[in-house]
Design brief:
mainly alpha, Growth Hormone, Chain: A
Length: 497
């Protein structure tokens, strides 16, 4: 491939990934503004993020094989076009239902783009050193999109409206389509492509039911029928999904690949990365704006150092990999993420930014190590012709982790906050304290009495934030510990990346 076309390919792939990742970070900053404009509760906010993450993760398992079967170029271009259309739908939405439809379309499109990026880079750069550099650039672009997202989102919300955070994707998507159509060479391996409609349907069913059940538990309580029935459906759906995948000739989730210790370990790490680091943006935005009282613009700027640190690490990741190796970088990344989140359990309404900013930087450093190391390690455990399937599996598990993290940790956060505020309001003599507390936490509607109700709500929400960060931090530390113990048997495979 001519160097100019190769550079254009890298740029096109990175632009596609840019808008896909941008809509994770840019949306989180705008959530409180959406809540006020659309008059939705915390469950609605969780769905704004999880509708995207759910369809992204559920369809990603089919998206990789689609590229293998019908062509990676054709699949990727369709993804950019569909994502741009979904962004337009979100930008035109004037109610929650319309917004969620647009987010679902974006999620399906993102499912084509995320695994497609790694697969295209793997095919275009057969040399391991060049491939490591290209994936490092891709990881840096992802980090940059996360850096730009909070600041750009804050500026757009402050000077325009929340819809503008989606409309910004339209010109970027058009440029990516033009560059990709010219530079990408078509490649396909249909003999390895999966065809598993039953598995695809069941993956959407069980993950959607699980997400609904966890969000309903946070809104109505764990014993509520909405939660228990949905969680039961999720459990049955998951068992049926695994049974179908075990029997399918060409499954979308190749369970046999998990017999390889390196593949299993790195994909588990990818799931925890989504559960902890990726989902944390949702909670940071609520903490900064509802607890500390910051504007969307100020919250965006305060989040920026985290992603700047991640971007800095991604830039030098190739050299770090040559010096220390993937196993050490993965373990260090998850340990830093866990340490940062455990430190965040001390955050209060008046925590100095020096303290919170330092922990955000620590989280960014850990994420910058964990993202490219898990990506490279997974791709190194399978042959090149199965790169699409491997990339789809890894990214699906990461986004599944994010989906479950927002739903489960969100339920934990709101549940703890509602209980704490109920006790505070009851102690202040308020009647129907639980209903008032639920409205204050989930809808940000403060009761008229007592006079310090807003302060009590902020303190309660901070306590819920502590619970969410504690759970996420423990999960990351457990991942680091398991990687330390289990990676010994896969060290040779991981170093080959």
């Amino acid at each position: 491939m001519h160097p100019a076309r190769r550079r254009a390919l890298v740029l096109a792939v990175n632009l596609g990934s840019f808008i896909t990742i941008l809509d994770i970070s840019i949306v989180n900053v705008a959530l409180p503004t959406m809540q006020a404009a659309l008059r939705i509760d915390m469950a609605g906010l969780q769905w704004v993020v999880d509708a995207y993450a759910l369809f992204l993760s559920a369809f990603m398992l089919s998206a990789g094989p689609l590229g293998d079967r019908y062509g990676r170029k054709r699949s990727w271009l369709a993804g950019v076009l569909l994502f741009t259309a979904g962004s337009a739908l979100c930008g035109l939405a004037d109610n929650l239902t319309a917004l969620l439809i647009g987010r679902a379309v974006q999620g399906v499109a993102g499912a084509l783009l995320v695994p497609g990026a790694l697969s295209l880079l793997t095919q275009a750069f057969p040399d391991p050193k060049e491939r490591a550099q290209a994936i490092g650039i891709w990881a840096s672009c992802n980090a940059i999109s996360l850096i730009v997202g909070p600041m750009l989102g804050g500026v757009l919300v402050a000077h325009f409206n929340w819809q503008s955070i989606f409309l910004i994707n339209l010109p970027v998507g058009a440029l990516a389509i033009a560059l990709g159509a010219w530079s990408i060479t078509e490649s396909a391996h249909p003999e390895h492509a999966a065809f598993d409609p039953a598995g695809q349907a069941l993956s959407v069913l069980w993950l959607g039911a699980l997400t609904y059940g966890l969000i309903a538990a946070g809104e109505h309580g764990w014993a509520a029928p909405q939660a228990t029935v949905a969680l039961a459906v999720a459990a049955i759906g998951l068992l049926a999904f695994l049974w179908v995948e075990h029997r399918a000739a060409r499954p979308i989730l190749p369970l046999g690949l998990f017999r390889d210790a390196g593949f299993a370990i790195t994909n588990f790490a990818s799931f925890v990365l989504g559960f902890s680091a990726y989902s944390s943006l949702f909670f940071f935005s609520l903490y900064m704006q509802h607890v500390q009282g910051l504007s969307p613009l100020a919250a965006g700027w305060q989040l920026a150092p985290q992603f700047a640190a991640a971007g800095l690490v991604s830039v030098v990741f190739g050299r770090l990999n040559l010096r220390f190796g993937l196993p050490r970088l993965m373990i260090a990344g998850f340990a830093l993420i866990g340490a940062a989140m455990l430190g965040m359990t001390s955050f209060e309404a008046h925590t100095p930014y020096f303290v919170s900013g330092s922990l955000l930087v620590l989280l960014g450093l850990g994420t910058g190590l964990a993202v490219p190391s898990t990506s490279m390690a997974v791709m190194a455990t399978v042959p090149r012709e199965r790169s699409g399937m491997a990339s789809a599996t890894m990214n699906a598990l990461r986004q599944t982790g994010m989906t479950i993290g927002i739903a489960l940790l969100g339920a934990l956060m709101s549940g703890r906050a509602i209980d704490a505020l109920t006790a505070s309001l009851a102690g202040a003599g308020a009647s129907d304290a639980q209903a008032l507390a639920r409205d204050a936490i989930t809808r940000h509607l403060m009761p008229a009495q007592p006079a310090n109700a807003a302060t009590l709500a902020a303190d309660a929400l901070a306590g819920g934030f502590h619970a969410a960060m504690l759970a996420a931090g423990i999960a990351s530390m457990l991942a680091a510990l398991l990687l330390l113990v289990l990676a010994r048997g896969s060290r040779r495979v991981l170093r080959a990346a």
